[in-house]
Amino acid sequence: MAQIRIPAIYMRGGSSKGVFFHAADLPADREAWDPIFLKTIGSPDPYGRQLNGMGGGVSSVSKAVVIGPPSRPDADLDYTFAQVAVGAPNVDYSSNCGNLSSAVGPFAIDTGLMAKSLASPGTDSRAVMIHNTNSGKLIRSTVPLEDGLARVEGDFEIPGVGGSGARIQLDFLDPGGTTTGALLPTGNPVDRVTVEGAGEFEMSMVDSSTPCVFLDAARFGLDGSESVADLEARADLMDLIEKVRCVAAVHMGLAASPDRAAGAAPKLGLVARPRAYHTLAGNLVEPQAADLAARIWSMGQVHRVLPLTGAMCLAVACRVPGTICHAMAGDVDVDQDIRLANPSGVLPLDARVEREGNRIVARQVTAYRTARTLMEGNVLIPASG
What is the pTM of this model? Predict the structure, then answer.
């Protein structure tokens, strides 16, 4: 039987890659999307390599994106993110991908989806207002232009990506309460939670850009400088992390029971005071180069950089007094970025948090990424099976 052809574009956004579709090229029935995405990416794959699809065996490259007309008047377009599990037939829409958000503006501009491909007055860039349907939040993407298209070449580098590119500014607006409706879903900066068979854990549960739970790495016998390989080689640790994450999902109101927790939310991060370590590229990072060390788990794997939404949530948490993250990072000047040490280097983020009476409000998180179209044409998927 012949394969089905669907127009698509393969893009890198930040430290992630994914297959991008126009909504008009997909079935109107959203339930029909999952089989298409699974076949496109090559999941489920018991071998963990996704050789029969466009994925690469890790969560950061096992993704799909759908771009369509805006469903709200203050946006230029709708953007829906799909996280495809590697080893299971699951497609998760519970959270956004911050990294692939950086490719949405270039995709819209280069494919003619925008009403006007004109630079903002007095600049050589175009501001694109993106409505992320996963979170219901707005993202302002400022995309550099060249001859009316998204500029690719530049001197901006980001951890985890070889080479450099044109800098794209992403302003995630009003990111608090993305899924749960509250920046602190439990109302507390720290909670003591009992995990059956594992004891009591202090957790900071925060929902900004995506729901996350943060814990002191020392609680797991770690110091925050461990490599991805070292962490993933410990099956006992990986199992415990997942167990803690699923229990946190219940306390955050994201799941009725631990076994019903979504794979992508909450993400779990272990934090520690910075110490010297070597990146995946072999570069030495000294303690003074960062404000906080972090390792974040996403879809059952340790992220090779930091998932950008998880990193943004962490940056906000560092601004919220009383959280584990704030205690570790200390009072970083509000005019300075929060510098997060991760397996691929140091990621700086600008988080704006204000107090309104008795409430802490996250106003904005700004990140800088690069993006590039890698291939355009059609994806071919089996018509059945």
Answer: 0.87
